[in-house]
Specification:
Elements: H1 5-8, E1 24-26, E2 32-35, E3 40-43, E4 49-53, E5 64-66, E6 72-77, E7 88-93, E8 99-106, E9 123-128, E10 135-141, E11 147-154, E12 160-161, E13 170-175, E14 181-185, E15 188-192, E16 197-202, E17 224-229, E18 235-239, E19 244-248, E20 254-259, E21 264-272, E22 275-284, E23 288-297, E24 303-308, H2 316-320, H3 337-369
Antiparallel strand pairs: 1-2, 2-3, 3-4, 5-6, 6-7, 7-8, 9-10, 10-11, 12-16, 13-14, 14-15, 15-16, 17-18, 18-19, 19-20, 21-22, 22-23, 23-24
Length: 370
């Protein structure tokens, strides 16, 4: 799915100049790898935070995947102003840092090639355009390059097999324990078997209650971002717009198991055994991004912040990590009140300008009569 990010990525209100990263994976030894959009970081089993893949300005890595042999996959997307194109690449890294490319940088990537690969080497990619909303397809590409539609057709929401099924706006993807693919689709979680049968695991994930107030970053489609599937089929989905992590059981029961405070919001999640690892991104208006952090939720419910990018360095990044300025704005954030507050503030400013202008005009007329 990653190679299509330039054309089909969701316009999240949580964006701070670029769509925040959702990529977080855990290897069999317990090392955690996550993206801050440009760099890939590693939290070792000793708790030490190090750079796993160095950043390159303008080169974005949104998603990460990991296979059974602990190979880590990512996709690069950048913008070329000269051609107005989107150079893309797909890479694989071993846990000792050796890098190889499944796709060298190109502005014309092969259709259906992505970081989401099954054991047979087939890759899966969502072909969609959230502007035109004409169709959403889940494509399968074989190692030989044969591309077929595994499921999907016209834009919408219908369960079924193959082209009888319909998807809306797909935000995240993850493999389940049985090899099926799970997708966040609008306010639903969908499951797709390798035979192309689509079922809805959970729906109505856009629910809100008093605990979700205020919800400053919600309101647009695509609130569900990264997701992960446990060995029993339970799905964990980051609901970034409502600053919470949702748990969806195989029988469709939905529960918010984590709610975060400004400026952080969950944007990605990984599960290993009974432990969860949540990638939280910080954003403060008007356009300040905090260094991301990783939270561990143990099987017993204990929560630990494992690392925060920028928390132990000096300079601007340290000031941005953990910014809480948004707290001053949440008073008008719930139920769309911030929109009305902005409108009232704008009207107030306009009234002051008119008053100043009128006083100036009276002063000019007074001087003219002198």
């Amino acid at each position: 799915m990653f190679i299509g990010a330039a054309a089909s990525c969701l316009c999240l209100v949580t964006s701070a100049g670029a769509h925040p990263a959702t990529g977080i994976v855990v290897d069999r030894a317990g090392n955690v790898y996550f993206s801050d959009l440009e760099a890939i970081w590693k939290i070792g089993t000793d708790g030490k935070l190090t750079v796993f893949r160095a950043a390159q300005r303008g080169r974005h890595v949104h998603e990460l995947a990991i296979d059974a042999e602990d190979n880590i996959y990512g996709g690069d997307v950048s913008y070329n102003p000269a051609s107005e194109g989107w150079p893309s690449a797909i890479w694989k890294m071993t846990t000792d840092g050796k890098t190889s490319y499944l796709l060298e940088t190109t502005e014309v990537p092969p259709r259906g090639l992505s970081i989401w690969r099954d054991r047979a080497g087939n890759s899966y990619w969502v072909d969609q355009n959230n502007h035109t909303k004409t169709q959403t397809l889940l494509l399968k590409r074989t190692p030989e390059g044969v591309v077929t539609t595994l499921a999907g057709s016209a834009y919408g929401h219908s369960d079924g097999r193959g082209t009888a099924a319909k998807f809306g706006s797909v935000g995240g993807m993850a493999f389940g324990p049985d090899g099926s693919l799970y997708l966040s689709d609008g306010a639903s979680i969908r499951k797709v078997t390798m035979e192309g049968t689509v079922t809805t695991v959970g729906s109505g994930l856009d629910f809100r209650d008093r605990k979700d107030q205020p919800r400053f970053l919600s309101g647009l489609s695509g609130s569900l971002t990264g997701l992960a599937v446990a060995s029993d089929g339970t799905v964990y989905a980051a609901d970034s717009g409502n600053r919470r992590l949702l748990k969806v059981t195989p029988d469709g029961k939905i529960e918010a198991i984590l709610r975060t405070e400004p400026p952080f919001f969950p944007n990605g999640v990984a599960v290993t055994g009974n432990d969860l690892y949540v990638l939280e991104v910080g954003f403060t208006l008007p356009n300040i991004s905090s260094g991301p952090r990783v939270r561990k939720i143990s099987a017993d419910g204990k929560q630990t912040i494992l690392a925060t990018v920028g928390a132990n360095v000096s300079g601007p990044l340290a000031l941005r990590a953990g910014v809480t300025a948004e707290n001053a704005l949440v008073l008008v954030s719930g139920d769309g009140r911030w929109r009305y507050a902005i409108a009232v503030l704008s009207l107030g400013i306009l009234s002051v300008v008119i008053l100043i202008w009128r006083n100036k005009q009276r002063g000019n007329r007074g001087r003219a009569h002198e």
